[in-house]
């Protein structure tokens, strides 16, 4: 994080230079927090000359903006940074001095190279598909292998530089999803105790994912049911619960509903129930879908769609999404669909006898 201060010399930075084509204007330092741009410091550019001073606790991806126009992203860190091409503007001039920014430029150049190569491979597949869709499968398979290889090689490069904030920023931005928990932990280990807000983001992500992982206790919550009465998940301990996130507008959800109905009818007298959490924001549409699909179980929702705290609490990225909970509220499995739901319920109910 970067702030205006002169007390902590070890963490101080200076950004200076000369913008020969610039009129007198304000140069702003902007950082990113919770999806917002926050101005943390500024200085006046006078006769093209500027000097911006402050502190930086750890390397950070920031934005320099001149007035209301020209801007430049940069990896700021303690030290002195000089705009070394005075005839260029802020956006195009080279800024020397930041190890993190040098690596960021290298990594983004690699990303651009991969992107261009992917466009060529994708074009080859599209042309093959246009000629003969049925015969294009081998080309598609090759495209998938190519993309996997690209991803793995780029991740390897990030791991090699895991102790640098630039690599941490890119990894946290583009990778590190829920299914990659072990990989995230390996990346953090590879960082060897380095400190940055991006590494902290990954560490927080590990804690969050572990809280909703298979084998963990499902986080408790309260939601109103379809009649507006508050309901609490933990009140359903003692039963196997399918916590099913869905919406009336979700076609795959509606297609899966008949399968869930079959499972419900088959196992409802053996300690199984369904709690459907709706992502709808319109009550009539929600009620109509329940009636049309014949869904005889519990229906909860706060009618604010993706903004629901429960959606965020369970890291719901798409619907349908479900979790099977045992009578102690432990997550047994995720996203069981089709026959897999029936097989898992059979296995668990046999063990419970």
UniProtKB/TrEMBL annotation:
Keywords: Cytochrome c-type biogenesis, Disulfide bond, Redox-active center. It comes from the Bacteria. InterPro entries: AhpC/TSA, DUF4369, Thioredoxin-like_sf, Thioredoxin_CS, Thioredoxin_domain, Thioredoxin_ResA/DsbE_sf. Residues 212-353 form the Thioredoxin domain. The keyword Nucleotidyltransferase does not apply. Coiled coil: none annotated. Signal peptide: none annotated. It is found in: Cell envelope. This is AhpC/TSA family protein. It comes from Sphingobacterium faecale.
